[in-house]
Amino acid sequence: MDASFRDMVDGRTGLIDRRIFADPLVYERELAQIFGRCWLLLGHECQIPNENDYMTAYMGEDPVIVSRLAGGRIVAHLNMCRHRGNRVCRADSGNARSFTCPFHGWTFGNDGRLDHVPGLDEVYYGELDVASNGLVPVGQLDTYKGLIWATWDRDAPPLLDYLGDMAWYLDLVLDRREGGIEFLPGVHKWQVHCNWKFPADNFIGDSYHGPVSHKSAWVSGFEGQPRRKPGYGYEGFQISPGNGHGLGARWAESPEEYVAMGLPEFQEYDRARLPEAEQRLGPVRAWKISPMHATIFPNVSILWQGGTIRVWHPRGPGLTQAWGWCFVDRDAPAPMKKIVRLHETHRHGTSGTWETDDIDNWVMSTQASRGHVARAYPANISMGVGHESSFPELRGRIGKFQSEINQRAFYSHWAEMMASEGRWPALERGGESVAERAAGGR
What we know:
Layout: E1 9-10, E2 15-16, H1 24-33, E3 40-44, E4 53-59, E5 62-68, E6 74-78, E7 93-95, E8 98-100, E9 107-109, E10 114-116, E11 140-144, E12 147-151, H2 159-163, H3 166-174, E13 181-183, E14 188-192, H4 197-205, H5 210-213, H6 215-220, E15 237-242, E16 245-251, H7 255-261, H8 267-281, H9 283-288, E17 289-296, E18 300-303, E19 308-314, E20 320-329, H10 334-348, H11 355-370, E21 379-380, E22 397-400, H12 405-419, H13 434-438
Antiparallel strand pairs: 1-2, 2-21, 3-12, 4-5, 4-7, 5-6, 8-9, 9-10, 11-12, 13-20, 14-20, 15-16, 15-22, 16-17, 17-18, 18-19, 19-20
Helix pairs in contact: 7-8
């Protein structure tokens, strides 16, 4: 590379070198500096409720097995036999105390220990170091209100520090009701010929594209008009809570205004759960802010009312594998869970009314970044530069609802992670400790 990674992103002017979306050398460094170090979402505890349940996931391009051991502890290991590198688990999920490599039969306990090697005495003469050839464990694993996270980096900051103020906002999804959320069965998986950063960028704060890209869905009434106002600059915020995370939300002056912002089929349920949400979260998080979209750095995205959580798995500079789960309150009535599932499928399934619009944008933007001439002209995310502010009842830096404050924070943090060698960039956090906030601070 003929420029440092910090030089590729100018957070002050909002200009970005397009090579970060197409250069194979940039991508290889991302696998080490981003996906080899950051906390990454593996799934939800409800997906492995019983002892010896497991599911498979990815951390970057590395496949992992997530298992619940006897006694309830959750562990995760690289899904790779230490002999020749074959995958020891081929299923998406199941229940097993051990995993046997289909190549040569090495067998590993779900705690990662190498339990059996065929011909250990006959062909290895008893000399193989069995104890040091177990499955490779993740560096750290932790959970936050049901979500399972892991990092390969043993020296990464604790999960709550990594999330920072984003954890305070995540509670709007995870902690509205006793019992939190659950993932409905099944995972949407599909591939998009785009760089993984484009969907993460879209979900972190691109409200600007809505009136153009999704106009047909709005005009058809599918989006529940008149809850959305046409045009630009309407009420709401883009919120940058630090550490590359970001979300967008609208502001309500009363509980009923909050309810009215929701899709019509959700409003009765929203109204019924408001008292519990206010008791748990306080009025600001229960109904004053109505979150819409978010990205947790680097590759987890959420649509609150859409009921979807996504992970953008990188598969090369120009290919992304998307995984999407539909989430609901665990104690929501069955008819409501069905409504959320159908809405998530119709809107954000692979052929949904919104998904096809977005995918085309991401693919075309990736293709443009590959061109020799195109790469000479930087991408521009300058919307709202110099107009950021604060808001007394919210945490983080605030921009207007049509603003690229979150994209600038995302790519600036990306550049710091890419440029840092052997150390973590300083994390952003407020005066109150993250642990105190997670314990119930409002």
